[in-house]
């Protein structure tokens, strides 16, 4: 049989027809997804919002739970003529409010289509019940129950974060969210959004040609149950967090506590912070929070780049021991500071000369100027630039100058200078050890966060290693990254750390009048080891800094306190950190130290802090 042009065309048409028939059969008989799409205009999806996961503290106390809230939804295309005055009375709003909303819906009817929109968020339960009784009178209006956050424990507004309705920008980046959905925006709520949010469900209803709801689609077979979010267990101790917030009340700064043996964050206080009462309805309070000149939404614990001050002497001392430019028996003089040429880096009055442990106990500035100069002028390196870069390498091994990798969002990396930085500033060959001598006492260009300082303290407590600080624990539905269980060793041999710890112990426990700068932090029986710091501040009072850990030989807690404009480290930061330590280890404050607790709780340093917008 010859296949002429006519036969070829006929065969082609038959083949195409067969393909179309098979395709239609699949669409209409086998797969009804297309049928559902075609019927979408007659189908109404009633969204079922999932219960968000609960956030617990390390002792299973609820930090963030859920309670029921009621919204009023409107499907503008289903609305018929209604009595505006009657509805306004039921909802306890003005008629003008309802008219304004309806006018807005009419202007945006194309964009809204058959969607339901929220007219009133979080109605009181009494209002919701009143509306439910007369809902039949107002077609197109319906109430909807959803869960919102509640906070049974006042522990860490900045830490926990808040949940709010997503906006167009958020939806653009996260297309799985729709208008009316809520998501975590800050803190733990944002960091663990995927685990906490759950999965939405829905009921499908059918409407007739007059847009009246008739029945469930396919008797509910296509409905989907909402899947609750996963609960999360944090490393936070709720009681300790709350107490830390009390200690930092009316002060600007941060307080961070870590369990050295695990890297788990026990408390993270940023002050002033956000009260948890504001988090449940953040929209109502957002303007007040955002306009606060003290920036309560700014988490100073992980975002503020502070100079570490004298606590950084511990790092330089350890590097000096490792590089053998100093030993425990090395004595240096101090004549009210370190003199070089016509210049001087000042120091407070104390005995002279002193050895290594005494330099920590008395926080001698001159001693660490000698150490840094010997490090940078060490002849085993070819140049001061090479020595500087080696110094930076050592410092970074303690976690400084980089993000630690915590599971808490918005962590700042800080800054540690190197030879390239100083070559840009002064020109190659235009600087020497005395040019950067302020690095010896944690000043100059060094920037770090209170989390870095708490991690330093945990590293010393562990005699040379740290676990990356983290805020989430392993639990039934949530596993933490294995990196949080790995030890990170410094470049300093572990044998050198007891020498520094001896000085920290003497700084706290040598007794009043001995020269120890942190005797105010001593607690009988706790063997607290600490180091004070006074970070210079060109804009007002110096910052008060203190790090400590306890007990000395079996550390359970490491703390860093940073109080802006607080003055000497022993004045505010040391009492705050030691009180937090005592509360954690003993569960109470001893009678002998109640006076100190009272002074700290009543202390108000807000007027010392210069902020924009403060009257």
Category from helices, strands and their pairing? alpha+beta
CATH class descriptor of the largest domain? Alpha Beta
Tell me, what's the shape?
elongated
Number of helices: 23
Question: If you had to describe this structure to a student in words, what would you say it looks like?
Answer:
The structure is a single chain. By secondary structure, this protein is α+β, with helices and mostly antiparallel strands. It has two domains: 45-74 and 90-233, Penicillin-binding protein 2a (Domain 2), CATH 3.90.1310; 238-276 and 294-477 and 494-608, Beta-lactamase. The chain is built from 23 helices and 19 strands. The strands form six sheets. Strands 2, 3, 4, 5 and 10 form a five-stranded mixed sheet that branches. A five-stranded antiparallel sheet has the order 12-11-19-18-17. Strand 11 and strand 12 (264-271) form a beta hairpin. The longest helix has 26 residues, at 5-30.
Could you list some keywords that capture this structure?
615 residues, alpha+beta, Penicillin-binding protein 2a (Domain 2), Beta-lactamase, 2 domains, five-stranded mixed β-sheet, five-stranded antiparallel β-sheet, elongated
List the helices and strands and how they pair.
Layout: H1 5-30, H2 33-38, E1 43-48, E2 55-56, E3 62-74, H3 84-91, H4 95-107, H5 109-112, E4 117-123, H6 125-134, E5 141-150, H7 157-160, E6 163-165, H8 168-173, E7 182-184, H9 187-191, H10 193-196, E8 201-207, E9 213-216, E10 232-233, H11 238-247, E11 253-259, E12 264-271, H12 276-279, H13 282-291, H14 300-303, H15 313-322, E13 337-340, E14 343-346, H16 356-362, H17 365-376, H18 384-396, H19 419-426, H20 450-461, E15 465-466, E16 488-489, H21 497-509, E17 529-535, E18 543-550, E19 557-563, H22 573-586, H23 594-602
Parallel strand pairs: 2-10
Antiparallel strand pairs: 1-8, 2-3, 3-4, 3-5, 6-7, 8-9, 11-12, 11-19, 13-14, 15-16, 17-18, 18-19
Helix pairs in contact: 3-4, 11-22, 15-17, 16-21
